[in-house]
Amino acid sequence: MSKPILVSGIQPSGRLHIGNYLGALKNFVDLQNSGKYSCYFFLADLHSLTEYPANAGEQKKRILELTADFLAAGLDPKKSLIYQHSQIPAHAELTWILSSIAPEGDLRRMTQYKDKSARGEEANAGLLFYPILMAADILIYDAKFVPVGNDQDQHLELTRTLARKFNSKFGKTFVEPQGLHTATPRVMSLKDPTKKMSKSQPETCLFLDDSPAEIEKKIKSATTDSGSAVRYDQKEKPGISNLLDIYCGVTGKTVPQAIKESKGKNYGAFKQAVAAAVVKHLAPFRTRKRELMTHNAKLKMVLAAGSARAAKVANVKIAEVKRAIGIAL
Ligand code: ADP
Ligand code: TRP
Question: Model pTM greater than 0.85?
Answer without folding.
Answer: yes
